[in-house]
Amino acid sequence: TAVKPAHDFLSIDDMTDGQLEEVLDLAAYSKQRRALAPSVIQAVEGRTVAMVFEKQSLRTRVSFETAIRELGGHPLHLGKDSIAMGQREPIKDVASNLSRWCSLIVARLYWQRDIVELAEHATVPVVNALTEWEHPCQALADMQTIREVFGQDKVKITYVGDGNNVARSLAKLATRLGYPFTICGPENFRLEPIEGVRQTTNLEEGVAGAHVVYTDVWVSMGDEHEQEHRLKVFEPYQVNGRLMSMAEKDAIFLHCLPARRGFEVTADVIDGPQSRTDDQAENRLHAQKALLQKIMGL
Ligand code: CP
Ligand code: NVA
């Protein structure tokens, strides 16, 4: 069996603290350098990167396609209907065939167990572009954004709402890098215990002292069948002006997007002066370029 030349990124757990720091440093550097000289480093020059997407996407798809092009490669988008992975043929065969043509596989799948299976059978690295379990590329861009505002200060981050994929990756990354991290949401929608992560139902307590207030949708892709219940349970956890006033004065607001104004966040907050959501979206590009360079061994 072939041995992978580089490693997968299916979870924040797949990198050491040092590797995470290196990716973030390179992302910041590459953002500055891009302003002066676009596309100097050609990490995937002349190579094709398969992008297997079972779910919808704007930011992840466009930022990865742009990143791959700026690194000299060719992104190949394979939507759910075109390859029907797992239906038309087994994940295993998709993985082994893609590995013969492409240098890397970026995958947005419903289930983490499927991306693990894909990675097991691929002989090229696999990058998680979101599953129900994690969204590690989002967390890298979020951390880059936090550091652009607060430098190396280990500011308190409070995630409000659903203990979902976005919450899990950010919680892992933040605690690994030494940030105090609190999740504030309803009892039955918590994350499993993660070392260093405080979880509470109490808003005042959770948000007090926070320099970063983060939320995400209450109904993630795949959770639509629970919509009615979720909208009720999460209502007290809306990020609005009152909630932001419980945080530090210079706190920023983050959201991975897409957002539902009037549900998890009000328009005055997400469109207001504390919001950094466009920087987060931009940083997906820089963080992923850095990640691809590291994974491809440059
Ligand atoms: N934040 C994020 O992953 O957005 P998309 O679902 O549009 O890719
Ligand atoms: N938690 C959301 C994030 C979308 C980027 C979802 O999984 O749908």
Automatic annotation (TrEMBL):
Compartment(s) of residence: Cytoplasm
Ranges of residues in domain Aspartate/ornithine carbamoyltransferase Asp/Orn-binding: 154-293
Positions of the Aspartate/ornithine carbamoyltransferase carbamoyl-P binding domain: 8-148
Superkingdom per UniProt: Bacteria
Transmembrane segments: none
Note: May also have succinyldiaminopimelate aminotransferase activity, thus carrying out the corresponding step in lysine biosynthesis.
Family to which the UniProt record says this protein belongs: Belongs to the class-III pyridoxal-phosphate-dependent aminotransferase family. ArgD subfamily.
Subunit architecture: Homodimer.
Designated name of the protein: Acetylornithine aminotransferase
